[in-house]
Specification:
Layout: E1 11-12, E2 22-23, E3 31-32, E4 35-36, H1 37-41, E5 43-46, H2 47-52, H3 73-91, E6 95-99, H4 100-103, H5 110-128, E7 134-139, H6 158-178, E8 182-185, E9 191-192, H7 200-221, E10 226-229, E11 239-240, H8 245-254, E12 261-266, H9 267-272, H10 277-286, E13 290-294, H11 313-325, E14 334-336, H12 347-373, H13 376-384, H14 391-397, H15 403-411, H16 423-438
Parallel strand pairs: 1-2, 5-6, 5-14, 6-7, 7-8, 8-10, 10-12, 12-13, 13-14
Antiparallel strand pairs: 3-4, 9-11
Helix pairs in contact: 3-5, 5-6, 6-7, 10-11, 11-12, 12-16
């Protein structure tokens, strides 16, 4: 059965094309620095937003019209698998991602839930035999069901902790079965509403214990995927423990896990943490912790996770700058953790959204690569910090001075001269590169 009969395989037609179902910038076969765009960008489709999301919002029921809406239960789960692989092939995405209950419904108990998962995992594995599409990462949903009301690995209820452990154990087994290249931990309920009833130390310690048990079991079964933590500062909890990359990094260092985990960084989550997307990427990159990316954006006028498809070329360019400087994303990729807007309810809108997102990242990739080739930002930064390349500055960097020597140097200074940061010129230069890309130069 074809679920998207009105859509053919999406092809690259170039900038002059007026076909909304064609790539204008993303040419999967085009090589940049020895790698094709497909190999470097490693696009992924988010199963939850693309195949299970019905576009419900807090004020209204779902609007999505989907060819599989007439099914229920396991029949619905099977239809979504069929539709998903048709979508993957037609959009040309090499990867996909899912939560466990995205692909199979929960049963009345954990045994029934696992049985449902086994059935759908076997079906996915069978579909993978005739497809080049791979599993970028999987994860366990431990935030939707009422049992997670007080958290999962950080819950106040030991029975819930055990249930969470069983869910992740199954998730690791599923990841190995389907060849997942990563496994993600997103603690949607791992946080607190108030400290008045929270044992903060116990919850942090239990989270550390949980992660160590996950590492141990992955080693036991030979699942060698990269473990990733996805930070988010709030929503649904008031304060989540994986607030941002920096606090997450401190947690991993404290509990002896920094060599086992990296970060899956989401643009919209960075915004909610009060950071730019590129800030989170930069911090992860310079600390060797950049693992994968959830490619989306938020609405600057709204204070929650809107998960919009990425269209801000300026932000995307700066994000790709960090990814290129990182040497790529390794086993990670660019997963479109994004949903079409509630008014974009037709099946073809799923293709329109992904085409646009892939095109936008292709533009950002090309512009960022050109900026790096021309050493634009590198030269600016080198000039700004040139005082640390010689004299007293070099002594500071090389650890050859102390407060007494620095005081003696400062007392003998005649005048301190600072250089202009020229931020306006820098932004204009980046925009100039963007406009050149638009002009096809």
């Amino acid at each position: 059965m074809a679920y998207f009969e009105n859509v053919n395989k999406i092809k690259y037609e170039g900038l002059d094309s007026n076909n909304p179902l064609a790539f204008k910038f993303y040419n999967p076969e085009e090589k940049i620095n020895g790698k094709t765009m497909e190999e470097f960008l490693r696009f992924g489709v988010a199963y939850w937003h693309t195949f299970t999301q019905d576009l419900t919002d807090p004020f209204g029921s779902g609007t999505a019209i989907r060819p599989w809406n007439n099914y229920t239960g396991m029949d619905l789960a099977k239809a979504r698998v069929e539709a998903s692989f048709e979508f993957f092939e037609k959009i040309g995405a090499p990867y996909f991602c899912f939560h466990d209950i995205d692909i199979a419904p929960e049963g009345d108990n954990l045994r029934e839930t696992n049985k449902n998962l086994d059935t759908i995992v076997a079906m996915i594995k069978d579909y993978q035999k005739d497809s080049k599409v791979k599993l970028l990462w999987n994860t366990a949903n431990m935030f939707s069901h009422p049992r997670w009301v007080h958290g999962a690995a950080t819950t106040s209820n030991a029975d819930v902790f055990a249930h969470a452990a069983a869910k992740v154990k199954k998730g690791l087994e599923v990841g190995k079965e389907l060849g997942a290249e990563n496994y993600v931990f997103w603690g949607g309920r791992e946080g607190y509403e108030t400290l008045l009833n929270t044992d903060l130390k116990l919850e942090f310690d239990n989270l550390g214990r949980f992660f160590h048990m996950a590492v141990d079991y992955a080693n036991e079964i030979g699942f060698d995927a990269q473990f990733l933590i996805e930070p988010k500062p709030k929503e649904p909890t008031t304060h989540q423990y994986d607030f941002d990359v920096q606090s997450g990094h401190a947690f991993l260092q404290k509990y002896g896990l920094a060599d086992k985990f990296k970060f899956n960084i989401e643009a919209n989550h960075a915004t909610l943490a009060g950071h730019t997307f590129e800030h989170e990427l930069r911090y992860a990159r310079i600390n060797g912790m950049l693992g994968s990316v959830d490619a989306n954006q938020g609405d600057p006028l709204l204070g929650w996770d809107t998960d919009e498809f990425p269209s801000d070329l300026y932000t995307i360019t700066l994000a790709m700058y960090e990814i290129i400087k990182n040497g790529g994303l390794g086993s990670g990729g660019l997963n479109f953790d994004a949903k079409v807007r509630r008014g974009s309810f037709e099946p073809e809108d799923l293709f329109h959204a992904h085409v646009a997102g892939m095109d936008h990242f292709a533009v950002g990739y090309k512009v960022a690569n050109k900026l790096i080739e021309d050493q634009v930002l590198e030269n600016i930064v080198a000039d700004r910090y040139s005082s640390y390349k010689e004299g007293i500055g070099l002594d500071i960097v090389e650890g050859k001075t102390d407060f007494k020597k620095l005081e003696d140097y400062a007392l003998n200074q005649t005048e301190i001269k600072n250089k202009s940061g020229r931020l306006e010129v820098i932004k204009a230069t980046v925009n100039q590169y963007l406009l050149r890309a638009y002009a096809g130069e």
